[in-house]
Amino acid sequence: DVLTDQIAAGEVIERPASVVKELVENAIDAHSLEIDITLEEAGLQKIEVRDDGDGISTDEVLTAFKRHATSKITDRKDLFRVKSLGFRGEALPSIASVSNVTMVTSTGKTGAAVTIKGGELVTQKPAEARRGTTVTVADLFYNVPARLKYLKSPNTELSKIVDIVNRLAFGHPEISIALTHNGRELLRTAGRGDQLQVIGSVYGMAATGQMAPIKASDADFKISGYVSLPALTRASRSYISVLLNGRYVRNFAITKAVIAGYGSKLMVGRYPLAVINIEMDPLLVDVNVHPTKQEVRLSKEEALSHLVRTAVAAALGDRNL
Ligand code: ADP
Ligand code: MG
């Protein structure tokens, strides 16, 4: 029921950025090639995610808004084993319980449009049959004043959205992802499968000439990606992105290992830009992870850290610095 959904929303949907993350992940799971994200007022007034993916068949649209109706896995350790990003089947019902949602979706045959207000179905009617899905989330948290109060300034909320979209884009260079806020385009990736090109879209094309590719592997891990030359740094380590089997994660040890790879090449208080891809057996991910918090613990973390550090050092050394 709506109340259960609202309680779950408290866990899954913390802020506008959580909505964007869940909707874009759904679009990715639906094999989209193009994803358009449009925001008004840092997402508080409107978040719209339009994709050209599989769509939902007309008779299943309402099921998508039912809690756990679509749950694919039951155990957290399956998180990194399944290919799809979604697995709990609670994002849509949670979002719908704390906002006004419209979904227009089609598999290419018939189309359906549903409007859901505070978790209750308002209208369902036929719609155009353009293959894909558009989800519009308006008036987020209008019925949960405590949530609204807890939010930071619009600028901070917007930067959290940008941050999430950037990292989803790094993990999916094969998808063209665009982000527009109050009519201004903030990001557009080419969707040509080139991760360096995505880095250019995110950090500016000039940055791509200052990124060194990294590559390393051992029996357990395969590492690839890009790290900035010591001349290109930022005042925060949040420009270091780690993708585990394509999924963005937060892990202090790996971040530290990236920085350690620079040795004494970084000035105090300066941090590199980096996108680090790690392919590994999902069983090496600690099961004690929170599904939305993105923090992971790994067994063999020390071996991985060593591999990352030496890969970064080698990439920088190769450039004779
Ligand atoms: P989950 O992603 O965990 O399965 P969600 O609540 O996020 O749960 O979505 C419920 C279901 O609705 C998905 O499993 C999927 O079948 C369908 N769905 C949601 N968004 C889309 C979309 N953009 N394109 C196609 N199907 C979608
Ligand atoms: Mg989902």
TrEMBL record:
<protein>
    <recommendedName>
        <fullName>DNA mismatch repair protein MutL</fullName>
    </recommendedName>
</protein>
<comment type="similarity">
    <text>Belongs to the DNA mismatch repair MutL/HexB family.</text>
</comment>
<feature type="domain" description="DNA mismatch repair protein S5">
    <location>
        <begin position="199"/>
        <end position="317"/>
    </location>
</feature>
<comment type="function">
    <text>This protein is involved in the repair of mismatches in DNA. It is required for dam-dependent methyl-directed DNA mismatch repair. May act as a 'molecular matchmaker', a protein that promotes the formation of a stable complex between two or more DNA-binding proteins in an ATP-dependent manner without itself being part of a final effector complex.</text>
</comment>
